Amino acid sequence: MTAIVLSHATSIPTERLALDLDEATTLTLLACALPDLRPLAAAHRLRTLRIACSRLESLTGLEALALDTLELLFSSIGDVPPLPSVHTLRVFGVPQWDAARARSARCVEEDVVATQALARRAWNEGAALCVGQIPGDSLLVVRPGPRADRRVDYAVQWANALARERALDDGDRILAGGFRDPAAPPDEQRFACAWITGDSDDARRWIAASPHLRDADRAALETLVARFPGELYFRDTDAAIDRFEQRKDPVPAWLRTFRTTVLSSVRNPAPSVFVRLDGFDRTGAMDRTAGGWYELGLLGSRSERRAVERRARLLPIAERPSELDDESTLALSLDEDDRWVYEYSPHWLDRAAPDEPAPTERVCRSIATLWGHVVEIGTPPR
Question: Are 349 and 312 in contact (CB under 8 A)?
Fold first, then answer.
């Protein structure tokens, strides 16, 4: 696989890049200002095109490419024609985006409706800024083009200003004018979506192809996919796991393999998703919380509990939502030979003496069978 990054360009130098484009499978256009994409017609092997922090007058030229993945990120696009058929389409922070353009894509990821509305209003107010949010990241405000920069600290204030039902006032415009010196230049990795997306057919193939799953694990995951045939399914990349380990906690090798080859999440790629469980494989530590709503994902330890959970060799993967009365955490063991899912109350763990066994109960034989207990995906009742 050959990857090319072309940054701060106002044209695509096809003569200089002819050999590279002929071999490239992934191309990132970062902080560019281009009239269209017609110079890419010679990129016959290109399968992934990422346009980030850029200004394009038109996407004309896309129709000549046989893409698997197209990403439009924090960019201004003057003319958005009907898009060619692709497997995965990701659109975050594009003010001109219209979801109707995505009908030819099998898997579509885009900003939530409220964020799309903010993006359009920010652009229509004349600020020439892109507002959006890649899953698992902060709300970002980006000035696209060769002088691109991004601001996280303005994002919440900017969003609040746009959400008010009135025109932007002078104070709001000064906020937009704060984009002068590029204090935070665009970073290719910051805008890389570190996951692989599939539909239910893809998920079934991932499950069938895995040599590491036991029969019970495979059956549980097939049950999950059968329950939610219209959802998007996700796998992590190794880069995503690496970043998690640098930022939070170690990940057992078997869990890395599971999340990168079989399943990391459903509906939301990162960092977590709210699910309702119909129970566990066996009775939990607290009968009253057997099943119910959980925030499920690669959560890791909170800073205030990291020492005690590390001592117990636990990696949290699910928690009861904070607005619910019952406190229950689900975790995996950091021991490579232990695949059980454990339940405990954080308060019990805090009160346990250092020389005592952790007060936990085994509730599911694996993370795969835990996924098999998911019967609803969405927002827990308040």
Answer: yes
Q: Where are the alpha helices (DSSP H) in the chain?
A: 14-23, 113-124, 155-163, 170-177, 200-209, 215-227, 238-247, 253-261, 306-311, 346-351, 367-371
User: Quick count: other Cβ atoms within 10 Å of Cβ 357?
Assistant: 8
Q: Which residues lie closer than 8 Å to 249 by C-beta, 6 or more apart? A: 300, 301, 306, 310, 315
Largest separation between any pair of C-alpha atoms in the chain: 69
Measure the CA–CA gap between 90 and 372, rounded to whole angstroms: 28
Alpha carbons 290 and 279: distance in angstroms, whole number: 5
Q: Which of 83, 39, 34, 44 has the alpha carbon at shortest distance from 63?
A: 83
The tens digit of pLDDT for each residue in 156-213 reads 454 554 444 444 444 444 344 444 444 455 666 777 788 999 999 999 999 999 999 9
Yes or no: is domain 195-377 CATH 3.40.1580? yes
Query: Per-residue pLDDT tens for 15-35?
Result: 766 667 778 889 999 889 999
Do 252 and 334 form a contact (C-beta atoms < 8 A)? yes
What is the Cα gyration radius of the chain?
Answer: 23
DSSP 174-213: HHHHT--S-SS---GGGG---EEEE-HHHHHHHHHH-SS-
Distance CA 181, CA 186 (A): 13
**Omega of the bond prior to 81 within 30 degrees of 0, cis?**
no
Domain ranges of the chain: 3-191, 195-377
CA-wise closest residue to 264 among 324, 198, 208, 320 = 198
Nearest residue to 376 via CA among 228, 206, 250: 228
- Tell me the whole-structure pTM to 2 decimals: 0.86
